[in-house]
Write a structure and sequence with these properties.
alpha/beta; Lysozyme-like; eight-stranded mixed beta sheet; seven-stranded mixed beta sheet; 15 strands; 29% helix
Length: 419
C-alpha cells in the first residue's frame, strides 16, 4: 500500500493508505475553490459520528482535470438547487476523475442524497457513469483515502458500513462496475438496517409511493442535467423514415438524428397509436443552455447516451428538444411513442427546452422555435387543432419546466390549466 496525504484548500489534514493510490497527495477542493453557491438557508448539522457511508455515481460524463470536474460540480449544484429546489448540492462529497475530492455539504452537514439515510450517513458520489466503465485508480484511491480520514477524524465510526446507493434506493447507482468494486472494500456491508419511514404521520403509504416516484423524477433530471445514462409495435417506421434529413423552412429548422449524431435505438420504437395527438408536454432539461449547433448536438448526444445506458431505455426519451441556437433537435420525432411523461407517453409529444429555466427565461429564438414546431405539427396533422399544452409539472411531481418557462407557456394559446 502507498501512503497518501489529504489536503483541504492546500492544508495537510491527514495521511492514509490505499491499494489504489497513485499520488503522494490528494486534495479536498473547497466549495469556494470549485465556485459553489451558498446554501439557500442555514444547513442542518449531522449528529456525531456516523454509521453509514453511501456510494453513488453522478450518471454524467467523467472528468479528468480540476477545471472539468469543477464545472460538472457547479452544474450538479445548479440542478439540485434550481431543478430539484433543494437548499444546496445534495452530496457531502464528490470524487473527481482527476483524483481530487470536491466538497459538497462536507462532513458536518446533513445531505440530500439518500432518502431516510441523509441524517445517518455521508453521501459520496463518483463523478461519471460506471455501468460499464470503471473509475480510474486515482478516483478509487481518493474515495478510500477520504473514508479512512473520516474515521481518523471521528466523523465515521471505526465499524461504519459502506453501502451502494442501489442497496437503499430504487436506482442503478453507483453503476454495475463501481458496485462490484466497492463490494471488495473492507467496510462494504451486505447486511444493513432497513430504515423505514414513519407511517404514523405525514409520511403515510401514499407518501411512500410518491417518494418512489420522486426518485424516478430525480434520475430523469440527472440524466438531462449532467451533460454529460417501448415495446415492439405492429407498425414500425422504417429506418429511412425514422431518421429524415434536416428540414429547413422559413419557420423551423429540425436537426435530424443523423445530423446531431444519434445512436440507433436498441429496439425498433413503437409508433404512436393515435394521431393527431391532443397533448403536448413542455419540460426543460434542467441543465446549462447551449447557443450553437455543436454545443446543442453534444448535449443531446449525452442525454441519449444516459437515457439508453443508465435508464436502460431504448432511445432518448423526448420527441423533440429545443436548443438555444433556435434549432429543434429530433428525438423520437412526431410518430414514435416517447419516454418523457408516465401516463402521457402514448398520447402526447414531449418537447424539452435545453437549459434550466427556474430563474432565467429562454432566448427569443428558442421560444420562437418551439412555437413554430407546434404550429407545423398542427398544419401537418400531427396535433389536433385544439390540442392542450401542459407544463411537465402539471402531470408529474417535478419543478420542470422551471418557474420562468412555465409562466411563459401559460400565456400561449393552447395552454390548459386542466390536463
Amino acid at each position: 500500500m502507498k501512503c497518501s496525504a489529504i489536503l483541504l484548500s492546500g492544508l495537510l489534514i491527514g495521511a492514509v493508505s490505499s491499494a489504489y493510490a497513485e499520488a503522494d497527495e490528494i486534495r479536498i477542493i473547497s466549495r469556494a475553490e470549485w465556485g459553489g453557491k451558498p446554501p439557500k438557508k442555514t444547513p442542518t448539522p449531522l449528529p456525531g459520528t456516523l454509521l453509514y457511508a453511501i456510494i453513488s455515481h453522478t450518471a454524467s460524463v467523467a472528468c479528468a482535470t480540476k477545471l472539468e470536474c469543477s464545472k460538472i460540480v457547479r452544474t450538479i449544484q445548479t440542478m439540485h438547487m434550481e431543478g430539484n429546489r433543494w437548499d444546496d448540492i445534495g452530496y457531502n462529497f464528490l470524487v473527481g476523475g482527476d483524483g481530487n475530492i470536491y466538497e459538497g455539504r462536507g462532513w458536518d452537514v446533513q445531505g440530500a442524497h439518500t432518502f431516510n439515510y441523509n441524517k445517518k450517513s455521508i453521501g459520496l458520489s463518483f463523478i461519471g457513469t460506471f455501468s460499464t466503465a470503471v473509475p480510474s485508480n486515482k478516483q478509487l484511491a481518493a474515495a478510500q483515502n477520504l473514508l479512512e480520514t473520516g474515521m481518523k477524524m471521528g466523523k465515521l465510526m471505526d465499524s461504519y458500513k459502506l453501502l451502494g446507493h442501489r442497496q437503499v434506493s430504487e436506482t442503478l447507482s453507483p453503476g454495475d462496475e463501481l458496485y462490484k468494486i466497492i463490494q471488495t472494500w473492507p467496510h462494504w456491508s451486505e447486511k444493513y438496517q432497513v430504515l423505514l419511514p414513519d407511517t404514523s404521520g405525514a409520511i403515510a403509504a401514499s407518501k411512500i409511493k410518491k417518494m418512489t416516484f420522486d426518485r424516478i423524477v430525480v434520475l430523469e433530471l440527472i440524466v438531462a442535467v449532467l451533460h454529460v445514462s417501448g415495446t415492439l409495435g405492429d407498425d414500425i417506421l422504417s429506418k429511412s423514415n425514422q431518421y429524415p434529413h434536416t428540414i429547413d423552412s422559413q419557420s423551423v429548422t429540425i436537426i435530424s438524428r443523423g445530423d446531431w449524431g444519434a445512436k440507433t435505438s436498441t429496439t425498433p420504437l413503437t409508433r404512436l397509436s393515435e394521431t393527431p395527438l391532443s397533448y403536448v408536454i413542455i419540460s426543460h432539461t434542467a441543465f446549462l443552455p447551449c447557443t450553437t449547433k455543436d454545443e446543442c448536438s453534444s448535449k443531446v448526444r449525452d442525454i441519449q447516451n444516459i437515457h439508453m445506458t443508465v435508464n436502460k431505455w431504448d432511445d432518448i426519451g423526448y420527441n423533440f428538444l429545443v436548443g438555444g441556437d433556435g434549432n429543434i433537435y429530433e428525438g423520437r420525432g412526431w410518430d414514435m411513442t416517447g419516454a418523457h411523461t408516465i401516463g402521457y407517453n402514448s398520447r402526447s409529444i414531449g418537447v424539452s427546452f435545453i437549459g434550466t429555466f427556474e430563474t432565467v427565461v429562454p432566448s427569443d429564438e428558442q421560444l420562437k422555435a418551439a412555437k413554430s414546431l407546434l404550429e407545423s405539427g398542427v398544419k401537418d396533422g400531427k396535433l389536433t387543432a385544439d390540442y392542450k399544452l401542459l407544463g411537465h409539472r402539471q402531470v408529474r411531481d417535478t419543478a420542470s419546466p422551471g418557474d420562468k418557462l412555465y409562466e411563459i407557456i401559460k400565456t400561449w394559446t393552447h395552454w390548459s390549466a386542466e390536463p
